[in-house]
Amino acid sequence: MSHIEKVQQWLAKKNFDIAYISDYKNIAYFTGFESDPIERTLALFIFPNHEPFIFAPALEVESVKEAGWKYPVYGYLDHENPYALIKSHIEKITHDPEKWAIEKGNLTVERYEAIKAQYPNANFVGDLTPLIQKEKLIKTPEEIQKLEVAGKWADFAFQVGFNALKQGRTEQDIVAEIQYALMKKGIMHMSFDTIIQSGANAADPHGAPKQDLLKPNEMVLFDLGVVYQGYISDATRTVAFGKISDKAKEIYDVCLEAQLTAQAAVKPGIKASELDKIARNIIDKAGYGKYFIHRLGHGMGQSEHEFPSIMEGNDMELEPGMCFSIEPGIYIPGFAGVRIEDCVHVTENGCEPFTHTSKELKEIPLD
Question: Where is the Creatinase N-terminal domain (predicted)?
């Protein structure tokens, strides 16, 4: 059964007339066509007993067809009212649908009001977000293969970045060298803005690379990933640039123990909350618990933050095919930050990581 057929079955069971999918990542998941429409309207409409259609900017219509979409696709010009046109296409299939299912986690108020203006008596009561999250939760072998290739390119990026660490260079210099090397290999998009942080800068978990010169005898944090055929990689390594202090080595060793222990514990049936606790207990016992300030991990696939969260309070049991990150971190303001991360997929008796760059502390010489 296809992804769209599963939605159709759900609509029929729930007695909904129509599903409106607005998240371009989810549209790609269901249709094979991916494009961020930015301010323009891109939508997928699914019906319980009729064929679906895509509604797209006119400049994307041919690309939709080229992506292999076998159902109708309708376009609109910039000066036209997209929602009035959407109504005209829906009316070819069903007159005045009353019960709608939408992605409550994505549909903006502006677009909700625009479609509501066309259907003032409609009830937008169905939430597609949990259904889609569940559908995307277990990756197919084809999806896992794409994630593995994306992971190999992340490993390549790490090696480029490690080799680029030189005195007199800035964090932003290293980012530029990594992304240029990937582009020369045909990898044109990163999963997210590459993070390179040196010394105390790494104590800000989501801080941006700066024009600061790399700090000798400090740790440098690399957090990066690439996009391959619509699927991403996401991994973090922290290395020593020169000789680091015993204190820095200590927090690295604690973080590494937490990451390796949690990753080794992954297996079908263990709860997401239990994994988080395994890593957190190690960091707590070492006295750094207050510096581990985020969840252990997040789901991944088409984007770097998907369902589920690997955290306290989430008692979901892991199943084969689930993909997520394991990324404990210790962030001491004014001193240093360490994070070590692999994304993994659950197997029948454990897990396999998508990235394989060594996690043992790597010392990069200053010269």
Answer: 4-133
pLDDT digits (tens, 9 = 90+) for 137-146: 999 999 999 9
DSSP state of 138: S
- What H or E segment, with its residue span, contains residue 323? strand 323-326
User: What does DSSP assign to residue 22?
Assistant: -
Residues contacting residue 305 through CB under 8 Å, at least 6 positions apart: 298, 299
The fraction of the chain above a pLDDT of 70, given in percent, is 100
Q: pLDDT tens digits, residue range 44-69?
A: 999 999 999 999 999 999 999 999 99
The SS3 of residue 365 is coil
Give the type of residue at 12.
A
The structure's pTM equals 0.91
Nearest to 126 by CA among 50, 55, 71, 48: 48
DSSP H or E run through 151: helix 141-164
**Antiparallel, parallel or unpaired: β 231-232 and 227-228:** antiparallel
Contact of 69 with 31, CB cutoff 8 Å: yes
**How does strand 73-76 pair with strand 53-57?**
parallel
Question: Mean pLDDT in the chain?
Answer: 96
* Lookup: tokens for 172: 């932003």
Euclidean distance between CA atoms 221 and 339, whole angstroms: 7
Contact between 19 and 46 under an 8 Å Cβ cutoff? The reply is yes
